[in-house]
């Protein structure tokens, strides 16, 4: 079925920016909703589980958090197939709708004292929806931003995926700090924890409205226009098509392995590390992490733009070499920090290195695959790798510390970074070999 010729007319920079903004705002809301669960687990855990030991309640809520994490590969698979068949815009609309539903369900579900075991069951259901959503969001968002950007500025525009990802994390923390200021602990435990989830649901509706105004990418539009019905009917399943690209799939795994372990170490785990190892107060650890993440957010488009000028590979090598050589000394120095100021600058240095991966990983992966399999090719292997390695990084760190061999974790992170470095050394520069070059 042919689309009107106007839909294939040259796209203006203004229309690109509008669509990229709408897609990025939705990404911010999704990651806010994802992180707010862990930020407020301390307050809502007693409401969803039987009265008893707080640690047991937190473990139950953490287990449900893990269930959501394990749903991410399924989300990457299902949403990737949907995006490659029905369009990037349609998949992004569905993704934010699922996240809205999950947040609203958490905000409105009565506690265990009102509905008994149905309360944790509904919490699991909500987290399943959110896991599917955020699992599908990454691959589809990476594909959409990369395809919507023009070839000269693809690294710059695609970097806004991690700008908004980090912004979502910071926003969740800001909401927590704000509610802690205006509400008493009793109010937070009683009903205040519902506020951030309600805000997330409302914000998701706003993101849904903005995403409805997005334009479909030229790459997908061109694919739809040139395909004939007999060809479409004869096409094998998307998963079978993906298996035709084993080298590209393994490259995504190798790209992600070191990046996700180092990223989660210096973003999610570092707050606990500063408290348990460096001896900081929780307030100081939070402020150090918040400030450094703010700097990292600003670094993303800078390194993305640099990759447009010098290539993707040099930026990836900056991360690979820096994290392989720098992880052990940086974690050692952070563990012996003399104060918040020193810890802040050490963490900024670490996140500057990490930004060599986060700023361009989306566009590098998108450039590996042809249009008809791009969203699935980016989303599925990424989600599997993150679930296995990124999701377990904190557990491995705490296990090593609990057994008195904390430095083993430093070497574990270093080894993961080194594996990715080997991939960067062997791969070509996707800016020059991109399968997206003829999309526009």
From TrEMBL:
It is a multi-pass membrane protein. Its main location: membrane. It comes from the Bacteria. Residues 19-432 form the Major facilitator superfamily (MFS) profile domain. This is MFS transporter, MHS family, alpha-ketoglutarate permease. SUPFAM superfamilies: MFS general substrate transporter. The lineage of its organism: Bacteria, Pseudomonadati, Bacteroidota, Cytophagia, Cytophagales. PROSITE patterns: MFS (PS50850), SUGAR_TRANSPORT_1 (PS00216), SUGAR_TRANSPORT_2 (PS00217). It is found in: Cell membrane. GO terms for cellular component: plasma membrane. It comes from Hymenobacter gelipurpurascens. Keywords: Cell membrane, Membrane, Symport, Transmembrane, Transmembrane helix, Transport. The keyword Hydrolase does not apply. The keyword Transmembrane applies. The chain crosses the membrane at residues 58-78, 90-109, 115-135, 156-179, 191-210, 249-267, 287-306, 315-336, 342-364, 376-397, 409-427. GO terms for molecular function: symporter activity.
């Amino acid at each position: 079925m042919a689309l009107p010729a106007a839909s294939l007319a040259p796209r203006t920079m203004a229309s690109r920016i509008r669509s990229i903004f709408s897609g990025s705002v939705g990404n911010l809301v999704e990651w806010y909703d994802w992180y707010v669960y862990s930020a407020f687990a301390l307050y809502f855990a007693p409401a969803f589980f039987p009265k008893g030991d707080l640690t047991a309640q937190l473990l139950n809520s953490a287990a449900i958090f893990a269930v959501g994490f394990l749903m991410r590969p399924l989300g990457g698979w299902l949403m990737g197939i949907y995006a490659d068949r029905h369009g990037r815009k349609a998949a992004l609309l569905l993704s934010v709708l699922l996240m809205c539903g999950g947040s609203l369900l958490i905000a409105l579900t009565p506690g265990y004292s009102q509905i008994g075991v149905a309360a944790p069951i509904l919490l699991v259901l909500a987290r399943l929806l959110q896991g599917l959503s955020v699992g599908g969001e990454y691959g589809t968002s990476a594909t959409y931003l990369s395809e919507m950007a023009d070839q000269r500025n693809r690294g710059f525009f695609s970097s806004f995926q991690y700008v908004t990802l980090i912004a979502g994390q910071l926003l969740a923390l800001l909401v927590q700090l704000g509610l802690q200021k205006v509400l008493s602990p009793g109010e937070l435990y009683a009903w205040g924890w519902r506020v951030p989830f309600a805000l997330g649901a409302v914000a998701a509706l706003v993101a849904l409205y903005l995403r409805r105004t997005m334009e479909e990418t030229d790459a997908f539009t061109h694919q739809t226009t040139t395909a004939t019905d007999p060809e479409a009917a004869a096409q094998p399943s998307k998963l079978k098509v993906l298996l035709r690209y084993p080298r590209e799939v393994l490259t995504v795994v190798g790209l992600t392995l070191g990046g996700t372990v180092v990223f989660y170490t210096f973003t999610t785990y570092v707050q606990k590390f500063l408290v348990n190892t460096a001896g900081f107060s929780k307030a100081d650890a939070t402020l150090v992490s918040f400030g450094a993440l703010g700097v990292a957010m600003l670094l993303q488009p800078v390194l993305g733009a640099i990759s447009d000028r010098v290539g993707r590979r040099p930026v990836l090598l900056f991360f690979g070499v820096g994290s392989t050589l720098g992880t052990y000394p940086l974690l050692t120095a952070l563990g012996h920090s003399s104060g918040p100021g020193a810890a802040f600058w050490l963490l900024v240095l670490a996140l500057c290195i990490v930004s060599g991966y986060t700023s361009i990983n989306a566009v590098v992966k998108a450039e590996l695959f042809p249009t008809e399999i791009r969203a699935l090719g980016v989303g599925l292997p990424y989600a599997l790798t993150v679930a296995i390695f990124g999701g377990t990084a904190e557990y491995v760190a705490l296990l090593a510390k609990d057994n008195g061999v904390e430095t083993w974790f430093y070497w574990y992170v270093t080894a993961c970074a080194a594996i990715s470095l080997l991939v960067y050394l062997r791969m070509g520069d996707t800016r020059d070999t991109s399968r997206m070059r003829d999309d526009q």
